[in-house]
Design a protein that fits this description.
The chain has a two-stranded antiparallel sheet. Helix 4 packs antiparallel against helix 5. It has 13 helices and 2 strands; from the N terminus they run ααααααβααααβααα. It starts with a helix and ends in a 6-residue tail after the last helix. The chain has 2 domains: 134 residues, no CATH class; 170 residues, no CATH class. It is 55% helix and 1% strand. With 324 residues, the chain is an all-alpha fold. The protein is globular, with a radius of gyration of 19 Å.
Length: 324
């Protein structure tokens, strides 16, 4: 598989996810394939390291496409659609959810990564496929903020309001948002391997990066409207900022179980060949995060290297350690 086929196949998985599965979540792997492509393209990786990323992203795609692919820029048997028309369909649905916190930002994440791939390709797919992506984004309307939290129940997260004492800075540009988010990550102490903690911190990175990508693609209004729900998620995460082993944790989650285990530190970073020497295909859901979390973290890092220097050590605990 050529590198560019990660974009075709990633978009195909996103476009078909809702119709084939009835829910939002197989699109996770399509977004991860696209993230893998851009992680290789946008970072100064060695040839071997880039090949390792692409090889594992290809294995992930093949699992969910059954070894077939989306066939380049083919319109999937339907009528072809232009880039601007496809973009308009997706943004029309994102407009309905951008002002709220829905499943830790996934409608924003899926929209931004799809648009990024469409722009890279100069357009892709059929009217039906573009409508499939739009339907996926639409399906997040009136959904919960997320299902796993520390210190807050889901109903409490819904009621969170930002207050002056939260000291959320005024943010008008992606560089400012990246500095803020990297600072929030750097302020964490113990990080637990739990959907309510390391996973939520990882989605803080991807959600905020998706807003930055929308800005970069010319959609500054969506960037600005998406800040308030992101900041509410950050506020909730601050309740778990200063955790220590042995603390009495108030965890609300259908999947996390006490006692939570501390994350292992990854010796290797995703920009290093050794990180990709481990086969991540056996970890199922987190296989997608192997690509998505590094893509977004390094996007933030490029926008503010100084703030990023304080966050790199903490990022080692969010990614999977190769022996974990």
């Amino acid at each position: 598989m050529k590198d560019i086929e990660l974009l075709y196949n990633g978009l195909s998985i996103i476009a078909s996810s809702k119709a084939q599965t009835g829910d939002h979540w197989e699109a996770h792997f399509g977004a991860a394939a696209i993230a893998g492509y851009f992680f290789v393209r946008d970072n100064d990786l060695s040839g071997e390291t880039g090949a390792g990323v692409t090889r594992q992203a290809t294995a992930m795609v093949n699992r969910y496409l059954g070894g077939t692919d989306a066939g380049g820029n083919a319109a999937g048997g339907g009528t072809g659609i232009g880039l601007q028309e496809a973009e308009s369909l997706i943004l029309a649905e994102l407009d309905k959810t951008i002002d709220g916190l829905h499943w830790v930002g996934h409608p924003v994440i899926y929209s931004a990564i799809s648009l990024l791939a469409l722009h890279e390709l100069g357009g892709w797919g059929s009217e039906e496929e573009a409508a499939g992506i739009a339907a996926l984004i639409r399906s997040f309307e009136r959904t919960i903020p997320g299902r796993s939290w520390i210190g807050y129940s889901t109903s409490e997260v819904k009621r969170v309001q930002l207050e002056e004492e939260d000291r959320i800075p005024d943010i008008h540009h992606p560089d400012q948002l990246s500095k803020f988010i990297l600072g929030e990550l750097a302020a964490c102490q113990t990080i637990y391997r739990a959907e309510a903690h390391h996973d939520l911190l990882g989605h803080m990175l991807t959600y905020s990066d998706a807003l930055n990508l929308l800005y970069d693609l010319g959609h500054g209004d969506f960037f600005r409207r998406g800040l308030t729900p992101l900041f509410k998620m950050v506020k909730v995460l601050r309740a778990s900022r200063s955790l220590h082993p042995g603390d009495d944790l108030r965890v609300f989650s259908p999947v996390d179980r006490l006692p939570l285990s501390e994350c292992k530190r990854s010796v290797w970073l995703p920009t290093e060949l050794e990180y990709w020497s481990f086969d991540y295909s056996g970890i199922d859901w987190d296989f997608g995060h192997v690509f998505k979390f590094p893509f977004s973290f390094y996007n933030h890092l490029k926008r503010d290297l100084i703030a990023g220097a304080g966050a790199i050590e903490h990022f080692r605990y969010i990614i999977l350690a190769p022996d974990q």
